[in-house]
Write a structure and sequence with these properties.
single chain; alpha+beta; six-stranded antiparallel β-sheet; 11 helices; about 30% strand
Length: about 325
């Protein structure tokens, strides 16, 4: 006798860049693999549907980008349901961090035979995040990007918006508390990463992983905006922590304060503001993924960036 099919709550964000993907083919692939999709009404609240179906399904399949995954995180943690991902967004940085197939149909084919693996979540002021939380340049960039520009221009939309934001970016002062130390620095951006990739091709740190039980911090303490362009190849590879004007460290808990409240960007969405209290919750969520990635992803864009913007990186003393 064949085993009964697993039931999966299938929710796809129609507003995602690739939200118009062929769901009929995705359904066929899932059913052929022994998974019966259960679909809520269009435009239903993702969190409410996950909580509603918690006792009736075996897993949740989310189609969308990083913002979709970020929004669903609290309900996934509460219910304990494992997550499978269909990358339908613009950058799909979480999918890249997990080394998932970038094509939605290939990702659907992967799900039926995949194993659920534990991953960490970052947390700031009560908000979970998968990839990175930022204050400064990236937060301003998140405010500049629109759903329409991401859908129209894709990852290129990040570059277009970044050029506009660069014209007005100004250094600001932050106080950083971690591991019993307090530091006051002037920066244009501080980032606290949980995963590996963010921002449409950037890398939090070359050794970062979504299941390593730590947060990866960096601060861009640069004098001129053009230095950010020079650092781009290193930011793509995750080697920027070696530069003399970049402060980088690992921690499990960090507090950031600023003279006036500043917005905090989590996975591309502005969700809170400073003062900001960051923590990592190790292995709090199960995600269907290949073996944990240790080292550069197969989809790393660092080589392209280094050809466009060659630079040297001086080690921090």
């Amino acid at each position: 006798m064949s085993a009964a099919p697993r039931r999966a709550l299938l929710i796809c964000n129609a507003k995602a860049r690739n939200g118009g993907s062929d769901l009929d083919e995705i359904r066929r692939i899932l059913r052929a693999g022994g998974i019966e999709p259960v679909e809520p009404p269009p435009d239903a609240d993702c969190r409410a549907e996950i909580r509603k179906h918690a006792g009736a399904v075996d897993l949740v399949i989310l189609g969308g980008g990083d913002g979709t995954m970020n929004f669903a995180a609290p309900a996934l943690v509460e219910t304990g349901l494992p997550l499978a991902i269909l990358p339908l967004g613009t950058a799909n940085d979480l999918a890249r961090s997990l080394n998932l197939p970038p094509d939605p149909l290939d990702a659907a084919r992967f799900i039926p035979t995949a194993e659920a693996r534990p991953v960490d979540l970052g947390w700031v002021n009560g908000h979970y995040y998968f990839n990175v939380a930022s204050i400064g340049f990236s937060a301003e960039l998140a405010g500049e990007l629109t759903a329409e520009s991401k859908k129209t221009f894709g990852v290129l939309g990040y570059a277009v918006a970044a050029i506009r934001v660069l014209r007005r970016v100004r250094p600001f002062t932050v106080t950083i508390e971690h591991d019993g130390t307090v530091e006051k620095v002037t920066t244009i951006q501080v980032s606290v990463g949980n995963g590996r990739h963010y921002g449409g091709g950037m890398t939090v740190a070359e050794s970062a992983a979504v299941d390593d039980g730590k947060l990866d911090f960096y601060s861009l303490e640069i004098d001129h905006w053009w230095r950010l362009i020079a650092l781009l190849p290193a930011l793509r590879r995750g080697t920027h922590g070696r530069a003399a004007d970049v402060r980088a460290f690992h921690a499990q808990e960090i507090r950031i304060t600023t003279r006036r409240p500043r917005p905090v960007n989590t996975d591309g969405e502005l969700t809170t503001h400073t003062p900001a209290h960051f923590k990592v919750f190790p292995k709090i969520l199960q995600v269907f993924a290949p073996e944990p990635v240790r080292g550069p992803s197969s989809f790393d864009l660092g080589t392209l960036g280094s050809r466009l913007f060659p630079t040297s990186e001086a080690p921090r003393p």
